[in-house]
Amino acid sequence: MSFRVAVIGAGRMGKLHARVLSQMDQAELVCVVDINPAAADALAKQRSCKALYQATDAIDMVDAAVIAVPTVSHVQVATPFVQAGKPVLIEKPIANDPAEAEQLIKLAGKTGTGVQVGHTERFNPTVLAMQKHAIKPKFIEAYRISPFTFRSADVGVVFDMMIHDIDLILMLVRGRVEQVHAVGVNVLGQHEDICNARLAFDNGCVANITASRLAIKTERKMRIFSEEAYVTVDYVRKLGIVIEKSRNLDLIQMAREMDIDD
């Protein structure tokens, strides 16, 4: 039995969701919605579904919706579906500010509706593999850089890119952030395009995060240092390396016994 889905937003991410949904046996892409009729019509024709121009027109037609509109409109567009008890998958970030996000979460609790955010990096094979190791990070270094894609220009690089690493770091550290020191630089518009942040947690872990959407290449990497292991992850290549202390005790002992002249 398939479930009926609407994709709200016919931009870059909306097109990706529409393509995947149209290829799934478990789902039926019923419609795509965009306030730009030409964009909605073009994508609907490509994916053999109905085109709509107002999100609320899709509520009674579907069982769930994917919200892929600009960030500032996430909560406004998602709310009628959640009120109607229709689960939503919202592109990250969930909202433009925490208060709006809390309102939507509270509404979902009242209606018993699922609200999921598209933190896709959680499902990267390297992250899934890393979670199998009992690692308690002491220091994390993450950087995520890419050329400017002209999408998500309504928000800064923190909401656009760094949010992935913030999400993963919070998941790994399992502590409360006590201090944040950060600097951001806006180059192309009113929002920051480059940002560096240093997060200090109550359990002693420190994370240094860098994000830029003005690079000439794409790199997404993280290094994790702990007392038990060293982990390095390349999210683009889906490659990770774990060096565990327990499996290298002989080398560690050798290093401790080695004289400086050796």
Automatic annotation (TrEMBL):
InterPro entries, sorted: Gfo/Idh/MocA-like_OxRdtase_N, Gfo/Idh/MocA_Oxidoreductases, GFO_IDH_MocA-like_dom, NAD(P)-bd_dom_sf
Residue intervals of the Gfo/Idh/MocA-like oxidoreductase N-terminal domain: 3-119
GO molecular function terms attached to this record: nucleotide binding
GFO/IDH/MocA-like oxidoreductase domain residues: 152-230
Record protein name field: Uncharacterized protein
